[in-house]
Design a protein that fits this description.
- By secondary structure, this protein is of the alpha/beta class.
- Helix content is 56%, strand content 11%.
- It is built from eight helices and five strands; from the N terminus they run H-E-H-E-H-E-H-E-H-E-H-H-H.
- The longest helix is centred in the C-terminal third of the chain and has 35 residues, at 164-198.
């Protein structure tokens, strides 16, 4: 088929084949860390997408690490660059999570993320991958293979890390709970010790020791 229909047909055929192989199965998807130390972004270094993501991450958790691997996100050779970026992060282990990001466009514009080589690179990645390609209504093969799909690149930045203030408050609550538990344990131990000191065995023991000490003296 010629034109737009050819892209759609190729998309459906590859989607069906990879689904049959099990690449979309939920059981094979990896969980994201609650707080990654470094996020690897695979995207074009130019444009609003990368700026928006960095701005959101700075707002949510200012001191988190971000490494940007610049790639072309459309056109000839772009799929190979995306694959090499995924492989680079897996070799170097410099990031805990990867985000594939691109703004919206036509199915042809987004086609790099429908390439089989990109899908298989995502599938074998040891590092969890978030696919954040296009707008909310856009779907690519990368979305189905990735460990998590974000409706937009900005949403990926929101999903990848919780706000620092939430984590700080959670730590404070845990600290308060721990302090209360320790105080309760100490109070119970103190009460138990008091009960033991008042037990008749200990009341008579002192007198008996004193009597026997007197016998030794005599």
């Amino acid at each position: 088929p010629a034109g737009l229909g050819a892209f759609q047909l190729a998309f459906e055929q590859l989607k069906a084949r990879l689904a049959q192989e099990g690449l979309f199965d939920p059981d094979r998807k990896k969980s994201l860390l609650m707080l990654p130390h470094t996020i690897g972004m695979i995207t074009s270094p130019r444009g609003a997408v990368v700026r928006d993501m960095v701005r959101i991450l700075e707002r949510r958790y200012a001191n988190i690490g971000v490494l940007i691997y610049p790639v072309r996100v459309q056109g000839e050779g772009s799929a190979e660059e995306i694959v090499e970026a995924i492989r680079y992060f897996n070799r170097s282990q410099l990031a805990n999570v990867l985000i594939l990001a691109r703004g919206g466009g036509s199915i042809e514009d987004l086609w790099s993320f429908n390439e089989e080589i990109v899908a298989r690179a995502i599938a074998v990645s040891e590092i969890p991958v978030i696919s954040a390609v296009g707008h909310e209504t856009d779907f690519t093969i990368s979305d189905f293979v990735a460990d998590l799909r974000a409706p937009t690149p900005s949403a990926a930045a929101e999903l990848v890390v919780r706000p620092k203030r939430e984590l700080v408050e959670k730590v404070r609550n845990l600290a308060r709970n721990l302090q209360q538990i320790v105080q309760m344990v100490i109070q119970e131990a103190r009460q138990h010790l008091t009960e033991l000191r008042l037990h008749r065995v200990f009341q008579t023991l002192g007198a008996r020791i004193t009597a026997r000490s007197q016998s030794v003296d005599e």
